[in-house]
Amino acid sequence: MARINPLKMRLDAGKPGAGVLITMPSVNMAQILAGAGFDYLFIDLEHGSIDAASVYNLITATAGTDCAPLVRIPKPDLALCKPALDAGAMGLIFPMICTREEAEATVQCINYPPEGIRGWGPFYAPTRWGLKTPLEYFEVANRELLNVILIEHIDAIENIESILSVPGIHVANIAPMDLAVSMGLPGQRDHPDVLKAIERAEKAILASPVVLGGMSLSAAEANAKIARGYRFLLMGYDVMLIQQMSAQLLDGIER
């Protein structure tokens, strides 16, 4: 059967993918961002006001585009993962993965047996994936779903090699803000100690089969990261985009 997940196809071909995080349960926002050309939407169930019903609507809003809907789950808990997967998510994002055991739990949650323990119930996912039946979806799900883990704690840096050795991890995304907080350096993502920790993670990820990901808040930063081997690029979040554009529009108005 043909490939389904456009983002996983890009990454498998060695091409970078750029995405944006959304915290608002707004179908309109998701539809606009998906149509703008982003390669993925990072739908946030960890910090935003999005619930299970909203996840289905946001995933559906990406239909008709080449934008893959990914959902961040608060933790690798099967009960939390199944609704997003069954709604048609093309991948899950797991925060605060700090040990090999936690990485293994993500693989178990995202995959059907024998690779994992995901239960049967893909009633809506086939339609979003352009398939006719749940059985067709079942046959390709383990191959096409993207498993993204966030490296965002100093403990993860110390355990990075054992985390990356887990089969079934596709992307390791370095999150500098939480990493800095875990090191007692809140807001200092460019602190030398934080950069040193990031460099250690980068080297380990680039030496593994796992795709390297990270935050890039401008095209220049994204291009610099691509040159260093990054392929999974997070370009900001919905609130930031609205705030920045609003500030630009208002800047200089004599009122």
- Morphology call: globular
Architecture, CATH level 2? Answer: Alpha-Beta Barrel
Strand content: 15-25%
User: Compute the gyration radius: what is it?
Assistant: 18 Å
Helix content: 40-55%
Number of helices in the DSSP assignment: 13
CATH class call: Alpha Beta
- Count all strands and give the number: 8
Order of the strands making up the biggest sheet: 1-2-3-4-5-6-7-8
Tell me the count of domains. Answer: 1
H/E order of the elements?
HEHEHEHEHHHEHHEHHEHEH
SS-based structural class?
Answer: alpha/beta
Q: For the report, how would you describe the main beta sheet? A: 8 strands, parallel, barrel
Looking at this structure, what is the CATH superfamily? Phosphoenolpyruvate-binding domains
User: N-to-C terminal Cα separation, in Å?
Assistant: 60 Å
CATH topology heading: TIM Barrel
How would you state the average pLDDT, rounded?
Answer: 96
Taking pLDDT < 50 over at least 5 consecutive residues as the criterion, the unreliable ranges are: none
